[in-house]
Design goal:
Number of helices of chain A: 17
Number of helices of chain B: 13
Strand content of chain A: 5-15%
Number of strands of chain A: 6
Distance between the termini of chain A: 23 Å
Shape of chain A: elongated
Strand content of chain B: under 5%
Oligomer: heterodimer
Distance between the termini of chain B: 22 Å
Helix content of chain B: over 70%
Mean pLDDT of chain B: 80
Order of helices and strands of chain A: HHEHEHHHHEEEEHHHHHHHHHH
Chain lengths: 417, 345
């Protein structure tokens, strides 16, 4: 036993898979200890905030110390963040239509371009063939450009409740800086927010944990049923075998997805918790473990040591537990690992079909995928809503399959090089 | 001459026996699937018709109207009758192709909804699965035969692809080729500005929209099949009969023919066994590309709590998969000589 385990842990495929898996488990356990935000808390007002560090504007203005940094490229950076290449081309288009000769316009000369723009732009003008959307785009561009080249600061004013007038409370200069560490409210969102405005990373860690649990429960249910039925069918044989094989064949042929859809739909949205879904997945996946176990048991049934055990008058349970189970443990472990990974995938597919666990208590990887698809994150280019989910699922199934290949190579001499 | 004819007669007899056996087994399975389709939704706690009517009647203040709807549906489903009688009503309706009205797409009937979406699913999934199976097997066989460089490149890719979730592959194809490169449209079965007609413009639009869902299903099918075929072919290449044939001086090309025919057989059964899970992956791919097939219909049915539509679609999918499996088993019976031998004993 000790020797086998040592052999397994020397197998490179198994080690790599096991490493990835342990890493995922550790992240799932440690992250909630460090970051204690509730995973389903809606913090963002709006959909799909991009990943980044969010510092409160209000607190930045009211920070205790202000630092003055004179950086050379500050002005250039400020302008380029407001004025993209597309905007410059669009401005040139407008100016050409307005009547300025094309050779006089240089879109790379920011100062001259802005000057020409300020001199000629008139929001009320509309050229033939210009759509309404295009016109409003120019109006928006114009507002954002206003005062772009000025070097003066911005006045902060507060409403005086007595006189109902604005009173200046401070000035923010262009070279004023604030240290992010001193801003009272900063929230790091490494993966942005999702369509509901929830922190994707925190949600993802929780979802990974729930999905792994679903996989484990589904795997345990499927393996227990599969193992029991396989042992009974293989060892007892006869009528028991015929009945069990009838149902096994039935489940093999009826598409699992159809059963999953029908059962989850029948349970109804309110009763569909993550646990229930896991059990349902397990109840529809046992059949191939049964097949594999039965085939193994049939080949073991007439071995000498089993016959000897029978002659010694041992009970069926003793024979099964002492003389048969030890020989098929490796197969059962491999089947269990595959059941876990296919259980996680089944949950994901079911959720994408709209039949996953109810959405209010816990996130799962499938539900996150479902929501990002419903809100078209993939078409809007909000990669942080779907890509991490796909990567995590791929990592889980990949690590499980690597472990399985590794075990197979240890226990199946025919595959050894 | 007579011996030859005798053998063919026996062959045919054996095959007929095999065919009848399989046909009966599939008939039994179909009956069970049909029963499940009937029973499962009726095990739902509470009155399904009441739940449906409550859902439909949201925002309707006319109590008499709600009562009328309730009564109509009770009649339609026969929920006021005993279970056995309900079953026969259901059987009678289904055999007339009558699944009732779709709740979410009223006044269309379930039969109409399925009729308009099944063509898309059939034309998308089966060609894609078969092509993926063919390419996967060819690649796997080549990897086993050529070994070295080809094998070293192909195998890690296949293992990675086959481990990748089907929907992940679809989303990545969509983002790369649809959103970033803009080579293909991202959703729908044809341009949203077109009306289905037999014009070149419409057909071209269908072809362009077909590409991404098609190749995402093909890619997923390739990975798993290539791995299976490779290990089967390696196993066969090392078998004793290959060494013996070499010893006898039989040409290499002929031996390869034997080897791949033998390695192919488990792959055919493998296709029959995996077609169910492939169809489920393809249904999800349809959702991702908003392809107007059965997968997309199921999503809308679940979102609209459309019970008759779900029941109808799952039954159709079951029939599709059963027919496909039956067809594969029939082909298998033709190409595997052992089956005829076993049956005519």
């Amino acid at each position: 036993m000790k020797h086998t385990i040592r052999q397994v842990f020397r197998q490179s495929n198994f080690l790599l898979g096991f490493g990835i898996f342990v890493f995922l488990i550790l992240v799932v356990i440690i992250y909630p200890l460090l970051v204690k935000y509730p995973p389903l808390e809606i913090i963002g007002q709006g959909t799909f905030f991009p990943p980044g560090i969010y510092a409160s504007t209000y607190d930045s203005i009211h920070a205790n110390t202000k630092y003055i940094l004179n950086l050379d490229e500050a002005a250039a950076k400020r302008i380029s963040s407001k004025l993209s290449g597309d905007d410059r081309v669009a401005m040139k288009d407008w100016l050409v239509q307005y009547g300025i000769p094309e050779y006089e316009i240089d879109i790379l000369d920011t100062a001259k371009l802005l000057e020409q723009w300020e001199n000629s732009y008139d929001p009320s003008l509309s050229f033939p063939g210009m759509t309404y959307a295009r016109r409003t785009y120019y109006q928006r561009l114009n507002t954002s450009l206003q005062g772009l080249l000025s070097t003066e600061g911005v006045t902060i004013a507060a409403m005086n409740p007595q006189s109902n007038t604005l009173e200046q409370t401070g000035v923010v200069n262009q070279n004023d800086y604030v240290n992010v560490n001193e801003v009272a409210n900063v929230r790091v969102l490494p993966l942005g927010t999702d369509n509901f405005g929830r922190d994707v990373l925190t949600e993802l860690v929780k979802a990974t944990s729930v999905s792994l649990q679903i996989g484990f429960i589904a795997g345990i249910v499927a393996t227990l049923i599969g193992l029991t039925l396989g042992l009974l069918a293989g060892y007892i044989g006869g009528l028991v075998d015929d009945i069990i094989m009838f149902f096994t064949n039935l489940f093999t042929v009826i598409p699992t997805v159809v059963l999953l859809i029908l059962i989850s739909f029948s349970i109804g949205q309110e009763h569909r918790g993550a646990f229930v879904i896991a059990v349902v997945i397990g109840l529809t996946a046992w059949y191939w473990t049964t097949r594999a176990v039965r085939a193994q048991v049939i080949s073991l049934r007439n071995r000498d040591h089993v016959n000897l055990s029978k002659l010694s008058g041992h009970s069926i349970f003793h024979i099964i537990f002492a003389d048969i189970l030890p020989y098929i443990t490796s197969y059962v472990v491999m089947a269990f690992i595959l059941q876990i990974s296919s259980g996680i995938l089944a949950e994901a597919s079911l959720s994408i079909l709209g039949l996953g666990p109810r959405t209010t208590d816990v996130p799962t990887l499938g539900l996150m995928m479902n929501w990002s698809l419903i809100y078209q994150a993939e078409i809007l280019g909000k990669w942080w809503a779907y890509l991490p989910v796909i990567i995590i699922i791929a990592l889980i199934t990949f690590s499980m399959n690597l472990m399985n290949t590794g075990l197979d190579q240890v226990f199946n001499p025919a595959l050894r090089d | 001459m007579t011996v030859d004819r005798e053998i063919r007669r026996l062959d045919l007899k054996g095959y007929r026996k095999y065919f009848l056996n399989k046909a009966m087994w599939f008939a039994v399975t179909f009956v069970c699937a049909f029963l499940l389709n009937f029973i499962l939704p009726r095990l739902m706690p509470g009155d399904p018709v009441a739940a449906i009517v409550a859902h439909m009647a949201q925002g309707q203040s006319n109590a008499a109207g709600v009562q009328a709807i309730y009564q109509q549906y009770t009649e339609l489903f026969g929920t006021n009758k005993p279970m056995v009688q309900q079953f026969f009503i259901y059987v009678k309706n289904v055999f007339h192709g009558d699944f009732g009205f779709s709740f979410s797409q009223y006044p269309r009937t379930v039969a109409q909804v399925i009729k308009s979406s099944i063509v898309w699913t059939l034309c998308l999934q089966f060609p894609a699965i078969i092509l993926g199976w063919l390419i996967g097997n060819t690649l796997g066989a080549l990897a086993a035969y050529l070994k070295k460089g080809f094998d070293k490149v192909l195998m890690p890719i296949s293992i990675f692809v086959s481990n990748f979730p089907a929907f992940g592959m679809a989303v990545i194809l969509l983002v790369v080729f649809g959103v970033s490169l803009r080579w293909f449209p991202t959703s729908g079965g044809y341009g949203y500005d077109l009306i289905p007609t037999f014009s070149w413009k419409f057909i071209w639009s269908v072809i362009v929209h077909y590409q991404l869902p098609f190749w995402s299903i093909v890619l997923i099918a390739i990975g798993g099949q290539a791995i299976g075929m490779r290990s089967m072919a390696i196993y066969e290449l090392n078998a004793d009969y290959v060494k013996y044939s070499r010893f006898m001086g039989i040409k290499d090309r002929k031996i390869i023919g034997y080897v791949f025919r033998n390695a192919m057989l488990p792959q055919v059964t493998g296709l029959a066994l995996s077609i169910g899970s492939m169809v489920s992956g393809a249904l999800v791919a349809e959702i991702i590309f908003s392809y107007p097939g059965l997968g997309y219909t199921i999503l809308h049915a679940t979102m609209g709590q459309d019970y008759p539509l779900i029941s109808g679609t799952t039954l159709i999918i079951t029939i599709m998969v059963l027919v496909a499996m039956f067809a594969i088993d029939m082909v298998y019976g033709f190409i595997d000589p052992r089956i005829k031998a076993a049956q005519s004993e």
